[in-house]
Amino acid sequence: MYIDTHAHLDFDSFDNDRDAVIQRAIENKISTIITIGTNLESSRKAVKYADNYASIYAAVGIHPSDCAEAAEQDYSEIEKLAQHEKVIAIGEIGLDYYRMYTDKETQKKAFKKQIALARKLKLPVIVHNRESQQDVLDMMIAENAAEVSGVLHSFTGTMEFLEQVLKTDFYLSYTGGVTFKNSTTDELIINTPVERMLLETDSPFITPEPFRGKRNEPSYILHTARRIADLKGIKLEELAAITSANARHLFALPE
Ligand SMILES: [Zn+2]
């Protein structure tokens, strides 16, 4: 069984066949999908899906690319949503210096505020970083995110950065990008202990081979898992078992 620890099931590319996508995931041994909010509206939808489907859990939060539009009130609404029993993390939060929809200071304020919220509610954090890795890790350490732990999702970066992250207790998750011919993550995966790893699709984005170019969905996680198992030289079932146990531990999911 697999756990897709990062999907955006609320995105409109799933509007025509969301039920079928969720059903296909179950048929393909994905026992659990964590659907991740990116703003207040998207977080509300994530909670709604978690209410409607036994296999879905939700994370709520304001994404760095959405924090420019977020009002103060949105954060208190996120806090209320986070009380729901199937909300298992605060996310997606972090810093994005690639898209830069808003200035670094605004992004940092939103990130800091939401790490504090996670600590208050004792929920782990799901963290986005793009061309901001050092600031993200420095802030997670400075704001004591270690108290609730978390995951650096869609992990990429240098070996030096990996070494820094491995000195913390945070988890790392890899997406379908690992299956690309020009993938830059092989060495990172080889050097990441499986005990620190989570699997994710980041659906509808970063579709693994052989479906690259199409919409991604949770059932494609198998292709990412197969590539990671090959790189680690372990059996697929072993990778699935360990990464699922990691996800259950981090997000306090039921067995
Ligand atoms: Zn995401």
Poorly predicted parts: none
* Total strands: 8
Radius of gyration from the alpha-carbon trace, in angstroms? 17 Å
- Beginning-to-end CA distance, first to last residue: 11 Å
CATH superfamily: Metal-dependent hydrolases
Shape: globular
Q: In the residues, how many domains can be counted?
A: 1
Query: For the largest beta sheet, what order do the strands appear in spatially?
Result: 1-2-3-4-5-6-7-8
Beta-strand residue percentage: 15-25%
Bound molecules: zinc ion
Q: What is the correct CATH architecture?
A: Alpha-Beta Barrel
Major sheet size, sense and barrel closure: 8 strands, parallel
Q: Which CATH class applies here?
A: Alpha Beta
Determine the fraction of residues in helical runs and give it as a percent range: 40-55%
